[in-house]
Amino acid sequence: MPGSDLAMIQNNDSPIPMQPTFGDHDDWWSHLLGIFGRSRPTSTRIVQHLLTRFVQSNAVFFGLLHAPTLLAVVSGKQGHARADPALYLAVLAVSACDMHQTRIADERTSDMTSANEASRQLAAKLSEMAATYLQTATAHGSALTPSMGQAASILALTQPDGSTEQNSLIRLAENVVRTLSLHEAVSSREPLLQDSEPDSPLYWSRPVTSDSPESEVKYESIVRLCWTGISHRFRKYIAKPDEDFGDVDLPDFIQEIRPMAFWQPSVLPEDLPPPFFHSQDLMRRSAHLSRLTVSLAKLEKIKEVDEAGTPPSDTLEQVRGLLRSLDDLETSFVRHRPRSDAERHNVLGRTLQMFCRMHVWVRLTIWRKYKLWNSASDARSDDGAQRLFQTTHHPTVEFWLTIVQDMIDTMQQDLDAHVVDMTALRTSAADVDALARHVICACDLVVASGEAQPIAGQVDVALIILKRMLAHASLNEAKDGLHLTDDVVQRVKLGETRRAELTVGTAAAAEQPEVTEADVGIVRDDPMPPADQLSAEPAATTEPVVEPISTEELPSQ
């Protein structure tokens, strides 16, 4: 780590502005506690629970805030005085939206459409309050501060995906970075951390420390604020993997920003376990993947085509270079890939799942736009002497398929339990939409790779459960149950069409028998009749139990 960076955090001489101080005016805090009831101690505990839940549920995409600093607001009056009302109200709005859900995907936190009525009303109220504070600050010409950018970024989670309101908030967060030149302040003090392998001492090097843990938090907060805009975009790409970049400009300054790292290196124990270094390496690899994505988006913006609609050879060569870089990242993924269910669901494992899904999205985007695909068998070591992967598909693709299988299994078990045991149906419209989108992507993978199995069989199983969900929603349309919009229904039908059109170029693949309900153990007394002949299924009679998310063992990234 360069000395200039060490001097910055030790001497705390950075021009980066500190968070605002609001003096003793904590009317916002009293108003907030009043929303949750007359008992101030009880309301304080509720706020603390919601803040804690935000930290636990958003550790992967929006580890934007330092948890101890965030929670300090409930520890005394000093915390209230230093707190930015817009930021805290935005955090509480996100957490309130999800508070009645026992499970929620990282990329779909704060989904108003999946929240129950009570959660939605509370989240909307808190969101409106946060927006009012933020608008007042900007309208009165207040100086931009990092906390404004943080508040805008968090508040964007409560807005409909792709809406004008959400895009405006993301732009505000990025405008804070640019106006205050935060990206220059960070990148000028520390050159890019290079990727390294476990056989290199650099891989196992400890992060630089300082005598001021507060300045370490301040520095890392700025780094994470610089990354927050692209985190929003990646969240969308992962949630909607069948879509492309859209009409957005990814921030170029990402190419020069150091990766996110541990919040306070000075408080780390002397002996650090290997998972700590693995998590830091994953942050570096994720930053590398982000830069590749920005490069691809830039190519797409300036892409020129000839009369036949083909990009020029130099553009195609640049895209091939991106594919080779993706292969290099595959080897890192193999090293970190979760080996157990527990590893899969801790912070490192959840981050790896997002890394994998983003990696596959980039591959599919290249295929859709340039019709370029390098098979796993084509990936070679640097000297070209041996294959990098001894598998049919790339490691990230194979792991992506296990993620899709989890989605299928969860939905099938939920509907079976609802039909047989009359338990409440937990599957939401967002869950159905997500699986339908992944079915479409799976069909793209078959066409791109030329390998039908095991993907085609998995698609068949997914379509069976999706069609059952459509039938269930149709039968219970008049009840207060699962409601699917026309867009979701059409997306499922598109998945069926894509499956029917699959061609893989071999007679053997074409003759693969279609998977049936009997093959996958669907719980049903009789063969499934047409939807208009189905009798109504039992209505849900119980509400899901809310359980707090367990704290992860690894340091929050």
UniProtKB/TrEMBL annotation:
Start and end residues of each stretch annotated as Disordered: 187-212, 513-557
Protein name: Uncharacterized protein
Organism field: Kalmanozyma brasiliensis (strain GHG001) (Yeast)
Lineage: Eukaryota, Fungi, Dikarya, Basidiomycota, Ustilaginomycotina
